[in-house]
Design a protein that fits this description.
The chain is of the alpha/beta class. About 40% of the residues lie in helices and about 15% in strands. The protein has helices at about 25-35, 50-60, 70-80, 80-85, 100-105, 120-130, 145-150, 160-165, 205-215, 225-235, 235-245, 255-269, and strands at about 20, 40-45, 65-70, 90-95, 110-115, 140-145, 170-175, 180, 190-195. Strands 4-3-2-5-6-9-7 form a seven-stranded mixed sheet. Strands 1-8 form a two-stranded antiparallel sheet.
Length: about 270
């Protein structure tokens, strides 16, 4: 697909709704590669803005379902991609991605999520994709560099990192400098890819219990895991920790995913 000149230059207008519009074609193509997008794939794009990433996705031969909340951006996209919309290669949905969830758009069939999302709803949108009944094959997101590092690189765990790892394998793909956006954010970003997504880790324990356990354990970070768990699980906390082989004096951030799964299993018993 030929590169279009965007008449609606990103310099003419700032982003709304907390979003920083992508202006780098190189990063857009890196996102497509990170998401392993192939011809014929169905892709959910959240917050396409003026269409920099959308264009790269369409060029890959994917069919794109783009959810955009900003009505003025919707008009830009309608004009820029009139041909693709007519051919139904691009399905443009005006609305909030927190309402147009993956399950609502793709109740069945394979799809991928590729998006430059507003920073302030990063956790919410990651959770929406990973906990969907019909989960995506893979996810590639532009997020704050610190968030990507916390999920994919840090030796210390968090509620967010465990919430991702229980469903898939996170990868820190590359750093994206703040100059790749308009308006530029105050911090650098990164491409975060999540692959091998499935529910296999929690087939034997209730999903709700797993999240209850980790939220309880991280409630007060300076306290030991036993102190935190006793608040909810009482006398069952110590025996479960013992069976899972977890030192009761350990802090939650130092416990790997496999041990959390064992702990949830014994707390279920």
């Amino acid at each position: 697909m030929k590169q279009r000149k965007n008449k609606h230059s990103p310099k003419t207008r700032g982003a709304k709704l907390g979003q920083h519009l992508l202006t780098s074609t190189a990063i857009a193509h890196s996102m497509v590669e990170a998401g392993e997008v192939m011809k014929g794939d169905r892709v959910l794009e959240i917050g396409p803005g003026k269409g920099m990433l959308t264009e790269a996705l369409l060029a890959s031969g994917a069919r794109v379902f783009a959810v955009e909340k900003d009505s003025s951006m919707v008009e830009v996209l309608k004009n820029r991609f009139a041909t693709e919309i007519k051919k139904k290669q691009l399905v443009l949905i005006e609305g909030d991605a927190r309402e147009y969830t993956p399950d609502k758009i793709f109740p069945q069939g394979a799809y991928k999520i590729i998006a430059n999302i507003p920073y302030y709803i990063t956790g919410e949108l990651i959770r929406s994709g990973l906990t969907a009944k019909n989960k995506p094959v893979s996810i590639a997101l532009l997020v704050q560099k610190e968030v990507a590092e916390r999920i994919a690189r840090s030796k210390k765990e968090s509620i967010l990192s465990l919430s991702v790892k229980v469903f898939g394998t996170p990868h820190y793909v590359k750093t994206v400098k703040r100059g790749s956006f308009n308006p530029p954010p105050s911090v650098d970003s990164a491409i975060l890819a999540i692959r091998e997504i499935s529910s296999s880790n929690i087939k034997k324990i209730p999903e709700e219990l797993f999240f209850q356990v980790i939220k309880c354990a991280f409630a007060q970070k300076r306290k030991t895991i036993l102190s935190n768990l006793k608040r909810v699980f009482g006398e069952h906390a110590f025996p479960a920790l013992d069976k899972a082989g977890i030192d009761a004096k350990t802090r939650a951030e130092d416990i790997e995913l496999s041990k959390w799964l064992e702990l949830a299993h014994y707390l279920k018993s």
